Please model this.
Amino acid sequence: MSTRQQPPARAPQPGAAAGAPQLGEPEAAGGYEAVVPHWFHCKVTADSREQWVPFSAQDSARLEAAHGSGGGPAAVVVPTSGGRYDVRLQQRQRVAVYWDEEVAEVRRCTWFYKGDKDNKYIPYSESFSEELEKAYMMAVTHDEWKKKLESPNREVIILHNPKMMVHYQPVAISDDWASTPTEQGRPRTVKRGVENIAAEIPSGEPEQIDHLVFVVHGIGPACDIRFRNIVQCVNDFRNLSLGMLQTHFKKAQEQQQVGRVEFLPVNWHSPLHSTGVDVDLERITLPSINRLRNFINDTIVDLFFYNSSTYCQTIVDTVASEMNRLHQLFLQRNPQFKGGVSIAGHSLGSLILFDLLTNQKAAPEEEEQGEEGSRTASSNRGIEVTEMLQELELSEYCDVFEKEKMDGQALFLCTEENLKELGIPLGPRMKILHYISSRREMQEQSAAGCRHSREHRARPGAPSQHDLDSADEGRTCQYRDVGLGQVLVNYPQLNYNPRIFFALGSPIGMFLTVRGVKRINPNYSLPTCKGFFNIFHPFDPVAYRIEPIIVPDLEFEPMLLPHHKGRKRMHLELKEGLTRMSADLKNNLLGSLRVAWQSFTRAPVPALEGADAEPEPEAEAGVEKQPEIKAEKPPAVLKEEPSLIKVGRLNGGNRIDYVLQKKPIETFNEYLFALQGHLCYWESEDTVLLVLKEIYQTEGIAMDQPLAGSQ
Model:
């Protein structure tokens, strides 16, 4: 019965819906009512088993409406799953729109069966379902049951009554005395109508799209502990966001201010490994420990590829071109979209995006204003003659320069003869000339750096370490060691300016340190992206912080990410409460011991003044020998309230590092959950809620109730 012939199916009655009450099982004497169909698509699991998944009620109604209208030409296409898949109605095919995926079979389902080893009901083919429906209609109309239908494969379905229908599978026949098929094997359960199989049918996604987020994966083709690809992980992330919107933005949804956020995956691993590099690696790979070596070649080697100028160029070109392609295709399919765009990267994907963003071109007006302001500030610092003389410890000559009306510009035009005419002695004269020479050289270097930076930005390509230092020197001369240098490749430009950049489990901090970056200028910000959030799990072995590179002189904890249900996890609150309680008890005990010790070592009050000359030093000595007992302070905990620490402009003056809360089971052994900590972000409600909160905050929309500890 695996035939794929698709004869025309019976259209439902007007007004029928996928979630309608049960209509297909009336009493024997009752009248016949047509079954309500529902549309399914076939999904192939990791173990190559077929699993039939129902479309949402919204999508099924659209497909049924298109089917009921006659279909028309073969090119009828119905968008489903929020526009991410198209269904070719006549061919019964489901095709992915934004990424490559195998074409899935689609069925208009009315009858289902389930065996002992089946977890879910499986729909019959549309042709055989029609035969079953005709037999059922005759049985109900004429009240004649015990109907038997036999398929070409000798499979037998018997309709005993409206509530009992069974399906017998064929068995191998050894001789002519074999029993009939109805007596062989365990029968399958047969159900009519989707409302009788307890299928979980989602209602559908909101049509309004408020924001678009591109998600870039890390090393390897697998993105989580279950070895799922980026498409499947982003699907989970998107589904979580729909749930978070319903629970935390309910008021805004009721007022139709909030629709949904669309998340689209960006895959660069497949194009990279389709360049033929896998063949070269296989040629030099040793034959021993084959599985481990194949795993390394497929995942870990991606890190080395990114640090190679040849393959780094392939990676950044793939990521940028794919995001531009997806953005253009999304706008074509959603011409009414007026929202913003953000980007998110996991693991190595976050580093790729960070390098790409640091090499984007800002608007020409902003660049000119920034460079003009920096040059003006630099020149203003050099025209104060009084400050210059005070710096050179030559304040006594201020009156001489004021008398001659010498300002900074005139001073820089002075020669040794001019200073000699002013009566400046040889020693001070040499100091002034050396200062003028040094300042003139610095200005020339700064001007050359700005010209080189403009010329380099005018042509496609990535600035080197020196370029970024020179460009940064135009902004401020204080941070000459700020360099965000990457591999020397030509970084392509994006067709849009992202609003926020979310880094999940990111090694950006480590790579910047390895590249020689000791400190990021607090005034530095990404040229085209004003928001930056570094989100990590406390046990993630790949994640590193960003804020200590910006503010290296201060030690402070990252922001604790609020739990999506509010406050902290119970085990964290209990642990902190017990810690504070034990610290208070210890402080009280130590205080009591200190008072008792002082009472024992204190000398008695003498009756005569002359008698206190000798004992008093002993008593004091005894007190001095007393060990100093300090009250133990409770250990520092992660702060819930936003800190007033200034961490620069990389995130618009707001905090950058956010740490997830540990789960209770993760507190037993941090090493056991290290790998899970790096792959947990796709199913983390706290991460999803922070992303939604920050995205909608740019639109002026807040959550129903702010969470404790949120910024």
About this structure: Residues 1-29, 369-383, 452-483, 605-643 have pLDDT under 50 and may be disordered. The first strand starts at residue 38 and ends at 44. The two ends are 59 Å apart (CA to CA).
